[in-house]
Design a protein that fits this description.
By secondary structure, the protein is an alpha/beta fold. It has 15 helices and 14 strands. The chain has two domains: 116 residues, Rossmann fold (3-Layer(aba) Sandwich), CATH 3.40.50; 283 residues, Alpha-Beta Horseshoe (pyruvate-formate lyase- activating enzyme), CATH 3.80.30.20. Helices cover 37% and strands 17% of the residues. Strand 6 and strand 7 form a beta hairpin. The strands form three sheets. Strands 6-7-10-11-12-13-14 form a seven-stranded mixed beta sheet. A five-stranded mixed beta sheet has the order 1-2-3-4-5. Strands 8-9 form a two-stranded antiparallel sheet.
């Protein structure tokens, strides 16, 4: 309540023309950017926002714009797809004519009870133009976060955008579909023309930003939000590794990648990049289920070898696991627990499956009656949205969520 009072006071004092909110991923609460629209709206819906235009973007704006606008009627405009340059265009046009907002590519809105979705904006190919982020607007305490038993100053950081894979359950497929990357290989799950979808900052820009963050803001932990770090442009990674290896920066980098990218050569690269920890999606241990239901192809032996290699080289390993997927039974969860025993990761996370609107797994779950068409209040770390079924009762699912780590360790 105190926060709402302070927030209301700020709105009254500032009297804004626009109120915009969005978010990047949160490791604490699953895919934080998916629920940012709802979280922001819950803060604003009962406040007097004066004459401000309410505007937001993100994954739900991209996958379910009409549904979101109907459920959250106080929002004036949504930005589907990548929002940064569209937001800039909106703000620049607002000075001239409010009606011009309705003609900007990427914008969605309701008018006279009719839903309008404008032409898609171009994908952002040059990520250098989006930098640097301004962390000076945040209080220093916001940068504190736990990491392996310590409190460090850390930030989430983006070197690149895009993933070459098209896993049925993943929010990445929502963005791929928006920008018409719909074709994929049936053998690997990789999208076609993925080089046009993967984009990155230049090594010089990344190094300059990391230097500023470490030297001026005392940031020690850089948690990279790159969907699959080791599929970043190899030249960029090599150039960056040379710069970091020669530097005196006191930083630890945490990345996420797929196990099949870990080998002797990439290990040496990770060391030069000051990588301290690697998070890898195990998801589940049943290969047939993983390939047939999730369109995710990952060799079990390569996964085991990846965890082994990282341990031998003193790089911390986190295994990401999912339970409660459509058609997943109890045996699948038990096999995943046993597989985690073999991997013996330093950290284990287990998340409830979240039905992200527009993904193939979400549609499958809806057909099976496990989920409503659109689920709100999604948080894979805290709650399952699954309804009771004969394959895996929700009470049993909750048991494995609470006991997963102890069952692996013991």
């Amino acid at each position: 309540m105190m926060f709402l009072k302070i927030f209301k006071k700020k709105i009254n004092e500032f009297n804004p023309d626009f109120i915009f909110w969005s978010a990047i991923s949160s490791h604490i609460h699953g895919e934080g950017e998916y629920v940012n629209i709802q979280n922001g709206y819950d803060l604003l819906k009962n406040l007097d926002t004066k004459n401000a235009i309410l505007l937001t973007g993100g994954l739900q704006a991209t996958s379910a714009a009409e549904i979101v606008l109907k459920r959250m009627p106080k929002i004036n405009y949504l930005i589907a797809g990548e929002s940064e340059l569209v937001l800039l265009e909106i703000l620049n046009n607002f000075e001239n004519n409010t009606e011009e907002l309705k003609n900007i590519n990427g914008v969605c809105y309701f008018e006279n009870n009719n839903f309008f979705q404008n032409k898609k904006q171009e994908i952002i190919n040059d990520l250098d133009q989006l930098t640097p982020y301004n962390y000076d607007i945040f209080d220093n305490q916001v940068l504190n976060r736990p990491y392996n038993g310590r409190v460090v100053k850390g930030i989430d950081y983006e070197m690149s955008r895009g993933c070459i894979y098209s896993c049925n359950y993943c929010v990445e497929t929502i963005i791929q579909k928006y920008y018409n990357f719909n074709e994929m290989s049936p053998k690997t799950g990789a999208i076609k023309n993925f080089k046009k979808y993967l984009r990155h900052k230049s090594s010089k820009i990344i190094f300059d930003e990391l230097t500023y963050l470490n030297k001026k803001k005392n940031i020690e932990l850089i948690r990279c939000q790159d969907t699959n770090f080791l599929t970043n442009d190899r030249n960029v990674l090599l150039e960056l590794s040379a710069l970091l290896d020669k530097s005196d920066l006191n930083i630890k980098i945490y990345i996420e990648t797929r196990p099949e990218g870990i080998n002797e050569k990439s290990i040496e690269l990770l060391k030069k990049l000051k990588v301290d920890g690697v998070g890898m999606g195990v998801e589940l241990a049943d290969s047939d289920f993983r390939e047939g239901e999730l369109n995710r192809f990952a060799d079990q032996e390569k996964t085991i070898n990846a965890f082994k290699l990282l341990k031998e080289n003193n790089i911390k390993r986190t295994a990401y696991n999912i339970i409660g997927l459509p058609n997943q039974d109890e045996k699948s969860i038990l096999k995943t627990i046993e597989f985690n025993k073999i991997l013996n990761p330093d950290n284990i996370t287990v998340a409830y499956y979240s039905p992200y609107y527009g993904t193939k797994s979400q549609k499958k779950g809806e057909e099976l009656g496990l989920f409503d068409e659109y689920e709100s209040d999604v948080d894979s770390a805290l709650r399952s949205k699954s309804k009771a079924d004969d394959i895996l009762p929700v009470s049993r699912l909750d048991y494995y969520k609470k006991q997963f780590v102890s069952l692996v360790r013991n």
